[in-house]
Amino acid sequence: MALPNGTQRPAVLILSGPNLNLLGTREPATYGHRTLADIEAACQGCAETLGLAIEFRQSNHEGILIDHVQQARGRVQGIVVNAAGLTHTSVALMDALAMFDGPIIEVHLSNIYRREPFRHHSYVSLVANGVICGLGSQGYTLALRALADMFEHG
Ligand code: DQA
What we know:
Number of helices: 5
Bound molecules: 1,3,4-trihydroxy-5-OXO-cyclohexanecarboxylic acid
Oligomer: single chain
CATH topology: Rossmann fold
CATH superfamily: Dehydroquinase, class II
Helix content: 25-40%
Largest sheet: 5 strands, parallel
Shape: globular
CATH class: Alpha Beta
Number of domains: 1
CATH architecture: 3-Layer(aba) Sandwich
Structural class: alpha/beta
């Protein structure tokens, strides 16, 4: 039976927030040397192995991220989200994620709990099923594995 996305494969929206477009050159000691394109390629390969379809989106704009989350409703089965700086500030993005029916995995490249106190609070965590942080770009593919497992085993 086909899923709402028109394929046989569960679909996942992978959403990245402000400044993550500059990964690779942005504070590499904190965020690593991989670019967002590298992460997208790794996610694509991982999704193929897991039998998932992915949509990979990045924006520097809160409203555009909210639009992506709203448009994901009824269309994709799970969300991986690194809301970057908006993690710590955006009630509106949290509200959009709260309206999404499927599982949500929050990802951060850095360990936000080893950093400045203002990074220790996450609005996204309040609506996420799970959180992966501090494992670098690997966090994105680990999140896909977690979602695939949830889709398979509930
Ligand atoms: C981040 C952590 C946030 O505190 C920061 O504002 C980012 C990236 C991470 O992936 O480690 O932009 O989400």
